[in-house]
Amino acid sequence: MWDNRGTFGSMERGWIMGQARDVMDRLTAAAGTAKKDIEAIGNCFAEDAIAHTPDHGEIKGRTEIVRWWAQMMEAVPDGRYESVHSYEVGDTAIDEGYLSGTNSGFITMPTGEKLPPTNKRVRLRGCDLATVENGYIVDYRIYFDQMEFLEQLGLAQQS
After folding, report:
1. Confidence of residue 17 (pLDDT cuts 50, 70, 90)
2. Which PANTHER family does the annotation name (predicted)?
3. Rounded distance between C-alpha atoms, residue 126 and residue 141, angstroms
4. Using CA atoms, how far apart are residues 24 and 41, in angstroms rounded to an integer?
């Protein structure tokens, strides 16, 4: 169905073409640039959103997802995202790229333990998928190689 903006989408499912891409781009701007904006990150997610992360598994709810993002930004406060590919398929935006920065902050482990900063540079390739309904991310998946991250930090032996 065509919406009143001249784009094709399904209002029954709560999405309009371009909407997922817009929300993902806002998330990237809030988390992956020099201006880290935790409030803007929260504004991208539905209250009952679910995130799937390689380090903390399934995270339920906007508050917990924002807490995870805050921990990531604490670990690599100068982190920058470099996009390699960006896609939108239906109600889902997909980004592939690199996170680069220095581990100058504590890394929060799933147990709550905090590892001290290594002050080493990292460059990790990753992929994010965000499913959007009614202008908010309802399902978010992020993938990166945890072993590569730990190896770059000097916390694991290279294989």
Report:
1. low
2. ESTER CYCLASE, POLYKETIDE CYCLASE SNOAL-LIKE DOMAIN
3. 11
4. 10
Q: Can you list the domains of the chain with their CATH numbers?
A: 15-152 (3.10.450.50)
**CA separation for the pair 100, 104 (Å, rounded):** 12
Is the Cα dihedral 8, 12, 16, 20 positive or negative?
A: negative
Q: How far apart are CA 137 and CA 92, in angstroms?
A: 9
- Residue-wise pLDDT tens digits, 67-97: 999 999 999 999 999 999 999 999 999 999 9
Amino acid at 40: A
What type of residue sits at position 96? E
The residue written with tokens 């220095």 in the block is 102
59: left (phi over 0), alpha (psi -120 to 50) or beta: beta
Separation between Cα atoms, residue 150 and residue 159, nearest integer Å: 11
Per-residue pLDDT band for 44 (boundaries 50, 70, 90) equals: very high
